[in-house]
């Protein structure tokens, strides 16, 4: 299989997959600290691969695939955990889509999988029943007791999403939130975003001042002002604003105002 490594989770997936088969590195953005998404012509694809894997959104590095790779007849397997329901998806272009619910759908503990049925039933002999897609398909996702509370919460979230104009409506909202925040950062003399503009995530906006001391001050003062979890991941530092579907526009507006005020004071 072919794997594209564009961040932490895809790197873990790439390493784990090597336990079960012959895995090729189709692309990597590690050469520039994962600040970009490889273009189509940078993908080294094997037409005989069983599948091509990528992670749609990279929460730690603040990058997001803005296109669906063209892999010919090779099925695409995509981890959409952190941007599912934030934009329309042509499911027919994928072999398997899977997503942990904890970002945009429901509490942690539930995983949604969309599987092309002809791809099920080809598991390795060592595959546990619980990890076998065919088991879940044959048993209507109830081979074991499902996480009922999480599924109930997902139902409520989907009802709320319909009220926002469905997925197309949510896409417009999230574009507005992200554009607002990136505009403030790009026009700042203090803050910068290292991610290439055509690879930027609409879910996770990463930024920094260039000074570890000022970054720490920003995190401390923003926390005191009522903002939470703005500290960047320990592996990259800086700041990260996670503006998933549940984050209202007003919250992003207030963060933009705080960023401007902090710059004026520093």
Automatic annotation (TrEMBL):
Q: Catalyzes what?
A: 4-(phosphooxy)-L-threonine + 2-oxoglutarate = (R)-3-hydroxy-2-oxo-4-phosphooxybutanoate + L-glutamate; O-phospho-L-serine + 2-oxoglutarate = 3-phosphooxypyruvate + L-glutamate
From what superkingdom does this record's organism come?
Bacteria
Would you tell me the Gene Ontology cellular component terms? cytoplasm
Tell me the pathway: Amino-acid biosynthesis; L-serine biosynthesis; L-serine from 3-phospho-D-glycerate: step 2/3
SUPFAM superfamilies on file: PLP-dependent transferases
GO molecular function ontology, one term from the record: pyridoxal phosphate binding
The record ties this protein, via HAMAP family, to: SerC_aminotrans_5 (MF_00160)
Which PANTHER family does this UniProt record tie to the protein? PHOSPHOSERINE AMINOTRANSFERASE
UniProt name for this protein: Phosphoserine aminotransferase
Which source organism does the UniProt entry give? Answer: Pseudoflavonifractor capillosus
């Amino acid at each position: 299989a072919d794997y594209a490594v564009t961040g932490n989770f895809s790197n873990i997936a790439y390493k784990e997959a090597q336990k079960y088969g012959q895995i090729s590195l189709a692309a990597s953005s590690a050469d520039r600290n994962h600040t970009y998404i490889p273009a189509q012509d940078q993908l080294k694809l094997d037409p005989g691969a069983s599948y091509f894997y990528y992670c749609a959104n990279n929460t730690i590095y603040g990058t997001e695939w803005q296109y669906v790779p063209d892999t010919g007849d090779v099925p695409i397997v995509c981890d959409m955990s952190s941007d599912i329901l934030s934009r329309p998806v042509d499911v027919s272009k994928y072999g398997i889509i899977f997503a942990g619910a904890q970002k945009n759908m429901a509490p942690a503990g539930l995983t949604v999988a969309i599987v092309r049925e002809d791809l099920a039933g080809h598991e390795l002999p060592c595959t546990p029943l619980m990890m076998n897609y065919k088991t879940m398909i044959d048993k209507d996702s109830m081979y074991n007791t499902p996480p009922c509370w999480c599924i109930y919460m997902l139902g409520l979230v989907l009802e709320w999403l319909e009220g926002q104009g469905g997925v197309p409506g949510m896409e417009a909202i999230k574009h507005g939130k992200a554009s607002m925040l990136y505009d403030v950062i790009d026009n700042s003399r203090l803050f910068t975003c290292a991610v290439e503009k055509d690879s930027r995530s609409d879910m996770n906006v990463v930024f920094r001042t260039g000074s570890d001391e000022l970054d720490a001050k920003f995190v401390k003062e923003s926390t005191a002002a009522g903002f939470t979890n703005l500290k960047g991941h320990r592996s990259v530092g800086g700041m990260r604003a996670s503006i998933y579907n549940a984050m209202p526009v007003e919250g992003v507006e207030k963060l933009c105002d705080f960023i401007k005020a902090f710059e004026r004071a520093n």
